[in-house]
Structure formats: C-alpha cells, structure tokens
Amino acid sequence: MRTYEVMTIHRPDLSEADFESRVDGIASFLTERGGTISGRDLWGKRRFAYEIDDLHDGFYSVVTFDAEPETINDLHRMLTLADEVVRHKILRPDEQIAPVVEEGS
Predict the structure, then answer these.
(1) Is residue 77 one of the residues assigned to a domain?
(2) Looking at the DSSP assignment, which residues form a beta bridge with residue 36?
(3) What is the CATH number of the domain that holds 7?
(4) Phi, psi for residue 49 in degrees, rounded to 5
(5) Can you spell out the DSSP letters for 28-81?
(6) Which of 41, 43, 79, 94 has the fewest CB atoms within 10 Å, i.e. is most exposed?
(7) Count of CB atoms within 10 A of residue 10's CB?
(8) Does 101 map to a domain?
C-alpha cells in the first residue's frame, strides 16, 4: 500500500453538515476498497483566488490515506462524476521534493 492525499473543493451551496457527510463518503469509499484513513482535515469554506465555474468560494478538505494504486483510478472517477465536487487533486506526499538545507543555516 502507498500513502496518498486527496484534496477536494466542494460546492459552497452545501451546508456544513452535508460537506462533512460528503467527506465521510470519500473515506467510506476508500475503506470499502481496502484503504485505511490516517487523517482528515476539514478547512471549511474558503474564498477562491479566481472564479471557478461561476463560483467564488468552496469547502476545502484533505484526506490522508493508504491504498493500493488501483484504488486511485476508482477514486478519481468517483470524484470527477460527483456534481458537488468542484475540483480535486490526488497526490503522493512522499514523492514531494524535500527542501534543501544548507549547513550553517
């Protein structure tokens, strides 16, 4: 299994409870496919830097999980088809480039 993070932006017309329910749905989707959730961070409603699909804000969340690579395709498809998801991004945090630390700093 590999570690992944999925960041989602949900539509702003959802209530706070509906937003949390949708994030729980993502977690359930992953656990049903053998994944394990290691973290869930709800950022709440934030304003966009620029307009997306005539929207000016949305509910942000980040879910950290371990899953098999095949599960990622299913998750991507599910989030792409979900009307309440404005944008999503799936990444592997362990593949990020580590900052260079110079000696003497």
Answers:
(1) yes
(2) 66
(3) 3.30.70.60
(4) -70, -25
(5) HHHHHTT-EEEEEEEEEEEEEEEEETTEEEEEEEEEEEEE-HHHHHHHHHHHHH
(6) 94
(7) 22
(8) no
| Type and span of the H or E element at 69 | helix 69-81
C-alpha torsion sign, points 80, 90, 25, 29:
positive
Beta-bridge mates of residue 46 = 58
Residue 84 lies in a domain: yes
Contact 24, 10 (CB under 8 A): no
- Count how many domains the chain has: 1
Return the DSSP state at 101.
-
pLDDT in tens, 33-54: 999 999 999 999 999 998 888 8
Domain around 39: 2-94
pTM of the predicted model as reported, rounded to 2 decimal places: 0.81
